[in-house]
Amino acid sequence: MKIWEHFKTVTKHRHQVMKHCLKAGIxxxxxxxxxxxxxxxxFWVGAQYYSGTRSPNEKEREELGYSAAWLHHKxxxxxxxxxxxxxxxxxxRILPVKMPQNYVIEMFCDxxxxxxxxxxxxxxxxxxxxxFLEGRVRRDGMIHPHTSQQLEELLRxxxxxxxxxxxxxxxxxxxxxxxxxxDMNRYKSDES
Length: 192
Known about the structure:
- By secondary structure, the protein is mainly alpha-helical.
- The longest helix is centred in the last third of the chain and has 29 residues, at about 165-190.
- The protein has helices at about 5-25, 25-30, 40-50, 55-65, 70-75, 100-120, 125-135, 135-140, 145-160, 165-190; strands spanning about 85-90, 95.
- It is globular and about 60 Å long.
- It has one domain.
């Protein structure tokens, strides 16, 4: 069991996500990011299956056919699209739900940070996009199309324009959303 190595990897990842979330204008979300990874359900599995080059959940899944740590994690962390599913009464089945923008941004920060941590010196600004595109078939029908489009747009911008421009764009998106919300609140108070 590689307790110390797993702890260092999780903590390093969280710190990288926090840096990205600060650049994106969602610092407090970054501070709370992945705290469940320190819970016994997730931490001990991570230490047991630690490799340093990929998620321990993948190894647990290969061995058991599922990952208890992942099931725990995705149910508590809103930056994972898997969290955003619900029963749809008209379709009579579980369908993906559109993610709120702040969580899409955190998901972007998470994916970029994970690519940096796992790939180390081989990381490029295209890495997270390539990983996202490779998983397209696995995700089919599991992520809301709008959420997928938003994430891909951010990952493509990172690949083509770099971090500085991408985070500036994200901050501008957030600012526009906040202004719209303020306008709506003013409109509602004017009506009353």
